[in-house]
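Please decode residue identities from the backbone states below.
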């Protein structure tokens, strides 16, 4: 309840929906990554939550940034982030963005196709590039394996083609999928990366960097391994598979900011439909909780008693798709009561729209 009181104090007379972010927890999470991956370079995946307050805090702590678009680049440059602290790991980039990023001094890009090599060689000549490898996303809540990445032999061949086009083939990248709860998935991906590394070497390509991406899980409702457990598996796998001087890169997003955010919503209506109890909040799928569509289940608290029952929880829009959960365990609430949605710092306001005229949650820092 102390946290809820602190949240209420920062909200004051302002209404909901609101996203309240704790700076201290972001700092602690970043420091934990630095401790668990000593010597690695950490780049915050800006897509998770691009709020300027988060950028400024992580920048002060020494973190770099991973971006995908012109809009993200312009945001970082406006906030005074050095291009030397920025990389782009999206293997599908617009040529305008490539040209702009290169002209500002960014020289580390991902790729996974011949067409991307053509664009990079034309608009970012001589840049360092790393190939995106397709790996298993077993254990992840939000798989990313089909849209990006190539298999081992093609990855090595693309590195050769990149060199022939005047680029600097520099490393390998992969992503195990978002909210991955299986540590061995990283171990398998690292072993597969080793195969590419060695195959590239046999073709005259000496690599230097391994980007293991993000995907580190946070606490929602399901139990997940700790960062320390996952980091131990990763460290052991990298030590076994790669030279001691390898440049290890991480790009956490959710893991740095997710648990720091509490989304505060208000009950705006309730009903009984076909024997089911429904609660309607002023935040829903479209204006803050899009990840519920992919199966993310947020822990929720209220100021009411501990006796709970099952509710269908829905957002405020007139679209029937706007259902947050069909099995939310909540006490008996009334119109005007608040619901505190925990671990909501990532992919909430970042995904949100003003569909149907409903507000995107305002962000507050404590």
């Amino acid at each position: 309840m102390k946290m809820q009181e602190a949240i209420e104090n920062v909200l004051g007379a302002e209404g909901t929906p609101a996203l309240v972010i704790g700076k201290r927890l972001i700092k602690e999470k970043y420091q934990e990554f630095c401790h668990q991956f000593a010597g690695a370079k950490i780049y915050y995946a800006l897509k998770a939550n691009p709020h300027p307050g988060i950028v400024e805090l992580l920048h002060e702590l020494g973190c770099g940034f991973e971006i995908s678009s012109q809009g993200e680049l312009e945001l970082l440059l406006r906030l005074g982030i050095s291009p030397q602290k920025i990389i782009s790991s999206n293997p599908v980039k617009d040529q305008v963005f490539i040209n702009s990023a290169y002209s500002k001094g960014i020289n580390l890009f991902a790729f996974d196709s011949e067409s991307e090599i053509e664009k990079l060689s034309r608009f970012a000549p001589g840049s360092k590039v790393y190939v995106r490898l397709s790996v298993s996303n077993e254990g992840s809540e939000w798989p990313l394996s089909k849209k990006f990445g190539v298999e081992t032999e093609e990855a090595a061949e693309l590195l050769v083609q990149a060199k022939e086009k005047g680029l600097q083939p520099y490393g390998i990248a992969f992503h195990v999928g978002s909210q991955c709860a299986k540590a061995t998935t990283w171990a398998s991906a690292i072993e597969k990366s080793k195969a590419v590394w060695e195959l590239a070497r046999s073709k005259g390509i000496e690599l230097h960097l391994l980007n293991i991406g993000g995907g580190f899980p946070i606490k929602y409702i399901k139990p997940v391994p700790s960062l320390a457990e996952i980091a131990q598996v990763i460290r052991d796998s990298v030590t076994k598979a790669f030279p001691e001087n390898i440049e290890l890169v991480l790009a956490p997003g959710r893991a740095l900011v997710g648990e720091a955010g509490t989304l505060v919503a208000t009950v705006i209506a309730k009903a009984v439909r076909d024997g089911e109890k429904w609660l309607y909040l002023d935040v829903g799928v479209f204006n803050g909780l899009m990840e519920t569509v992919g199966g993310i289940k947020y822990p929720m608290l209220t100021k009411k008693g501990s006796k709970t029952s099952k509710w269908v929880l829905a957002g405020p829009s007139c679209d029937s798709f706007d259902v947050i959960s069909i099995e939310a365990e909540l006490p008996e609430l009334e119109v005007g009561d608040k619901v505190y949605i925990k671990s909501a710092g990532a992919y909430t306001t970042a995904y949100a729209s003003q569909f149907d005229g409903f507000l995107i949650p305002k962000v507050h820092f404590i």
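Observation: The first strand starts at residue 18 and ends at 21.
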